[in-house]
Amino acid sequence: MSDVLSIVPFDGPVQAVVTPPGSKSITNRALVIAALASGQSVLRGTLLAEDTEAMIDCVKTLGARVEQNPKESSITITGIGGDLSNAGPTFFARQSGTTARFMAAVLALGSQPFLLDADDAMRRRPMGDALSALEGLGITISAKGETGFLPVEICGPPTNSVSMPTVVIDGSTSSQFTSGLLIAAPCMEDGLRIELRGDIVSRPYLDMTVSVMRAFGAEVLTPDERTFVVSPSGYQSTDFQVEPDASAASYFFALAAICGGSVRVEGLHRNSLQGDVRFVDVLETMGANVAFEENAITVTGAPLHGINVDFRQISDTAQTIAAVAVFADGPTSVTGIGFIRQKETDRIAAVVTELQRLGVYATEDSDGFTVTPGPTNDAIIETYDDHRMAMSMALIGYKRSGVTISDPTCVAKTFPNYFDQMDRLRNGSSL
Q1: Separation between Cα atoms, residue 108 and residue 325, nearest integer Å
Q2: Which residues of 43-67 are buried (b: 16+ CB within 10 A; e: fewer)?
Q3: What is the dihedral of CA 347, 352, 357, 360, to 10 degrees?
Q4: Which of 28, 87, 236, 290 could cross-link to 98 by cystine, CB 3.0-4.6 Å?
């Protein structure tokens, strides 16, 4: 694929049945938990992309044995039983936020120093809250660059004088910090109690983490929405099925809303582990028709209306709704997502800048953005090395001509064949 990709509009309404690739979020949770477990686990329906490859490299460095079967989308992992004595010494998270945040907590289980590093893009993303929480547990953190950022040296294990230590985390930053501590907690000598303060963002990702932990035998209590009590139960191997990626599915749902017709996504349902299935509720509020089945969700296009909506719990689909908003009958304001300024890029500024480049009136708000629909002009869209910018802004080009995506290969982070799959839908194929 070249450095730019011209998006060709669909000739008319889309009619398709789609099964997206496996969930990145669930795959990476299952990978690290299976690595910490005792025995051999089989993960089915896994995603193979740059983010999950980063996690696979790290769990191998932990000492787990990993056997991949790409044709079956399965991975067999022989875990280390929570014992890091044969791990290390250097772990590289590439550009993967989940890998960096999860591994920071997991490496604290060891009694020897480990170096955790990443690509430049991940080095620019803050890690201060996660590292401070570890220091509060008696973990030694040594900055090898700027304080609060990678690379760092981590040396554990936790040292506390109480039977079950407590750590307090700001819930308004990244749920990945909390998920990392949750994942490590069953392998701590005395378990862990986690208390959240402030506004809690991306809560569905925490619920997802707990669900995957329990599937591997962890004992987690949630006495209230701000508290997690994790027993030192360790993990046991299991056979685990990964759901299709709901964030990836949002692009196909949005395609139906924008272009008309219907897209049926199989493998997802109302009670899926992933909070991003709620994206279809937003499309329904905007006017699209949504039908839930036992193991599928169908979105059918209809005239779209502008809305005001809080996306703090489904922030990975905020850029997708920005593209949909271009085709509504009035302005759409998305709020509650100020924290996504510290993702792969400042996703609020990036969305507004690129919509303006297309000629769409868009503004940055205090914790989100507002998009006013209107005509578009020809433009080359910058993607900021952000896979979600490429995939979401391309949606506009599937309805209107003149959209060109810069650096389209950045989608390899989570959805390597995204553009190929969209072209297959154009040709009438189902996925």
Answers
A1: 44
A2: bbbbbbbbbbbbbbbbbebbbbebe
A3: 140
A4: 28
Task: Give the SS3 label for residue 10.
Answer: coil
Q: Give, in order, the Cα–Cα distances in Å from 8 to each of 11, 185, 347, 396.
A: 9, 49, 25, 10
Which pTM was predicted?
A: 0.93
User: In whole angstroms, what is the distance from residue 348 CA to residue 271 CA?
Assistant: 29
- CA–CA separation, 417 and 169 (whole Å): 37
Rg (CA), the chain: 21
Q: Which residue has the tokens 């890029």?
A: 345
Cβ–Cβ under 8 Å, residues 125 and 347: no
Assess whether pLDDT exceeds 60 at residue 161.
no
Q: Which CATH superfamily is domain 24-228 in?
A: Enolpyruvate transferase domain (3.65.10.10)
Per DSSP, the three-state class of 37 is: coil
List residues with catalytic annotation: 316
Residues 6+ apart with CB under 8 A from 338: 348, 366, 367, 368
Regarding the domain with residue range 4-21+244-426, which homologous superfamily does it belong to in the CATH classification? Enolpyruvate transferase domain (3.65.10.10)
How far apart CA 327 and CA 53 sit, in angstroms, is: 36
Q: Which residues belong to CATH 3.65.10.10 in the chain?
A: 4-21+244-426, 24-228
- For 316-340, the pLDDT digits (tens) are 999 999 999 999 999 999 999 999 9
What does the alpha-carbon distance between residue 20 and residue 416 come to, in Å, rounded to a whole number? 12
CA 314 to chain centroid, in Å, comes to 10
Q: List all residues 6 or more positions away from 189 whose beta carbon is below 8 Å from its beta carbon.
A: 157, 158, 232
Give the tens place of pLDDT for each residue, 335-362: 999 999 988 899 999 999 999 999 999 9
The string of pLDDT tens digits covering residues 225-240 is: 999 999 999 999 999 9
Q: Can you tell me the distance from the alpha carbon of 34 to that of 248, in angstroms, rounded to the nearest whole number? A: 24
pLDDT on residue 428: 67
User: Which token pair is 333?
Assistant: 């304001």
The type of residue at 168 is V
Mapping DSSP to helix (H, G, I), strand (E, B) and coil, where does residue 271 land? coil
Q: What is the mean pLDDT of residues 91-107?
A: 96
